[in-house]
Design goal:
- The chain is mainly beta.
- Helices cover 11% and strands 50% of the residues.
- Strands 9, 10, 11, 12, 13, 14, 15, 16 and 17 form a nine-stranded antiparallel sheet that branches. Strands 1-2-3-4-5-6-7-8 form an eight-stranded antiparallel barrel.
- The longest helix has 14 residues, at 183-196.
- 27% of the residues are buried.
C-alpha cells in the first residue's frame, strides 16, 4: 500500500463532520463560529481534498483543507486549525485558542442556485482585464433546478456540477467539447476554464457576478444577460 492510499485511509477513519452542510457553533465566551464543510474536490493539480470554510464576526473568512487527525476531523492551513469532534469544535490560531464550541444548528448546502444566480452570466473581465475586442465573450448559465451548470468558454461549450453555500461556490467535474480554436478565442477559453476551477466564493451586486478565490481575489467578473 503506497503513501497516498494510507493518507486516504487515515482521513476516512476519523469522525465525519457534516459534509455538504453549514453548521453554527456557540462558544463559552460568546463567540459564534459558522463552518461550511465542503466535501472532497479534485484540485487543478489532481490532488483531492475536503475543506472547511470558517467564519467569525469581525474576522476574515478562512478556507482550511482537511489534514490527517488521530481523532475527529482536523482542518489546517499550517497556522489556523479547526478541530471537529462530533457536535463540538475547537479553533486555534497562534496564541488564540477557542474551546468548547457546541453546535446549535445546521442546514444543507444547496444543490440548486439561489434566485440571485439563476440565468445567464456573460464574462466581462478575467482577473480584472477586459475581454479582447475580437474574442467572443464566454458565458455561464445556472438552471433554476439541479446542481449542473453549463456555458460557452469562448470557443467550446462546457459543463459541470457545482456546490453553493451562503457565499461559497465550487465548480466540479468541468468538461468541454474539443473544437479547434482561433488564437484569441483559445487563449480566452484556456484562461476562463482555468480560473473557473479555482473559484471558491461569489458575490452578486447590481446585476454583476464576481467569482473569487479562497483569499478573496477577483478571478472572473460577469454580468447578467
Amino acid at each position: 500500500m503506497n503513501q497516498s492510499q494510507l493518507v486516504l485511509l487515515a482521513l476516512a477513519a476519523v469522525a465525519s463532520p457534516l459534509w455538504g452542510q453549514e453548521a453554527r457553533y456557540a462558544c463559552p465566551a460568546g463567540e459564534v463560529i459558522d463552518v461550511t464543510y465542503l466535501p472532497e474536490k479534485t484540485t487543478p493539480r489532481g490532488a483531492k481534498t475536503a475543506r472547511a470554510v470558517v467564519r467569525m464576526e469581525g474576522k476574515p473568512k478562512l478556507v482550511l483543507p482537511q489534514v490527517i487527525s488521530g481523532s475527529g476531523a482536523r482542518f489546517s492551513d499550517g497556522y489556523t486549525t479547526l478541530w471537529n469532534k462530533g457536535r463540538e469544535v475547537m479553533l486555534e490560531a497562534g496564541s488564540i485558542n477557542v474551546n468548547g464550541c457546541t453546535q446549535t444548528g445546521s442546514e444543507a448546502v444547496s444543490e440548486a442556485p439561489p434566485p440571485s444566480l439563476v440565468g445567464r452570466w456573460t464574462l466581462v473581465a478575467l482577473e480584472g482585464n477586459p475581454i479582447p475586442a475580437r474574442a467572443t465573450a464566454p458565458f455561464l448559465e445556472f438552471p433554476a433546478k439541479g446542481d449542473r451548470m453549463a456555458g460557452y468558454a469562448g470557443c467550446n461549450r462546457f459543463g459541470g456540477s457545482y456546490v453553493v453555500g451562503r457565499d461559497s461556490i465550487e465548480f466540479r467535474q468541468i468538461f468541454s467539447t474539443k473544437m479547434a480554436c482561433l488564437e484569441e478565442g483559445g487563449q480566452v477559453e484556456s484562461q476562463f476554464l482555468d480560473l473557473l476551477s479555482k473559484v471558491s466564493n461569489y458575490s452578486v451586486t447590481n446585476g454583476e457576478l464576481q467569482l473569487l478565490d479562497s483569499s478573496g481575489a477577483l478571478l472572473l467578473k460577469l454580468r447578467a444577460h
